[in-house]
Amino acid sequence: MKVSADVRAMIERRKKGHTLAAPFYASEEVHALDMDAIFRRHWIQVAVEPDVPEAGDYMTVELGNDSILIVRDDDMQIRAFHNVCRHRGARLCSSEKGSLGNIVCPYHSWTYNLNGDLMFAEHMGEQFDKCKHSLKRVHLENLAGLIFICLAETPPADFAVLRASMEPYLLPHGLADCKVAAAIDIIEKGNWKLTMENNRECYHCVANHPELTISLYEYGFGYQRSADNEEAMAAFDKTVEERTKQWEAMNLPSKEIDRLADLVSGFRTQRLPLDRSGESQTMDAKVASKKLLGGFQQADLGGLSFWTQPNSWHHFMSDHIVSFSVIPLSAGETLVRTKWLVHKDAKEGIDYNVDNLTAVWRATNDQDRALVEFSQLGVTSSAYEPGPYSPFTEGLVEKFCEWYIGRLDDYANTPDEASVNTHGEKVVSFKR
């Protein structure tokens, strides 16, 4: 789509270290630009491998006007297609999840196998070539059980950097051998960027998340040092250093990797100790599932956080995984999809209780929803102007905004305004 002069001017004058101008959060024009420049051009995390555990299992994902069909084929490979019949464009699968042997169009019964090949199309004549009417494929990457799709013709090539960095961190948790124990969708009445900004800082956590901060150390996500907290922060730093050495000696990579702002497929990870009993993000900081993940023999392995640009974050612990995916619905509405995963052999009511498993993040999500909605009301006020981020607690928010503005600038200044920079790792710098 064409980037208007007004939006180009906003990109140009964005003030580093400050929140975005109001139209970035409230304008439907910017929302349309976000869908085209961000969500149709980049790797978007949309599912987990256990969403489609058996051959023939499928799920659908909506990204703007595009419906994507994710299916596990007979060879147990996960594939993605546009959920559109090649005959007259009818939607193939209308349910969010299901199971099938072949993909059959409900309109005229054109039938595709799970590889997307057209197998049957009645009354089309002898000259009709079925091979030219297979389902349109969507690029898919499976990162240690996390499913990413990209709608671009040529997706960003630096996913290989992400994979090489993150597989050693994620694979020990055995996500592919998990099951989805619970899933909750929330519609936040706020812009998707406010949702992501809220996630990228814990400045607000102590005052707003009593359940989450049971297991999280207060100093774990940035803090301004002072005479009053110097001793406590030094003790926390020492704990992180000691536990990181222990975990890495167990072949559990734990050191921080931060590529949020300098990669097209930006990401960040770090394993941090958990407070109290230090086992899991639960109301008592003990494991929620007795059946540990992977081959783990001990429970106190901290929490591995993994964030991706533009739309996901995940927490990996010894006993369960919590996965979050964000999808814009409009300028003022955002879908936040949360999934809790446990070992596939864990038995509900014996090894885990769903209420206990989900208690912390059910409460935290509801609190964050309210904060995002308060923010959306504020940014639409005539009194709003971009405010400064804390350099101590909101540096990762700034990296999200830096990445976002950089991607818009790259899109706006690409000759056809239609392709992602897939060459090299650096995000194209944006003008000041």
UniProtKB/TrEMBL annotation:
Top-level taxon of the source organism: Bacteria
Biological source species: Caballeronia sordidicola (Burkholderia sordidicola)
Protein name: Benzoate 1,2-dioxygenase
Domain Rieske: 43-149
Signal peptide per UniProt: none
Cited PANTHER family: CHOLINE MONOOXYGENASE, CHLOROPLASTIC (PTHR43756:SF5)
Keywords tagged on the record: 2Fe-2S, Dioxygenase, Iron, Iron-sulfur, Metal-binding, Oxidoreductase
Keyword check for Ribosomal protein: no
Cofactor or coenzyme needed: Fe cation
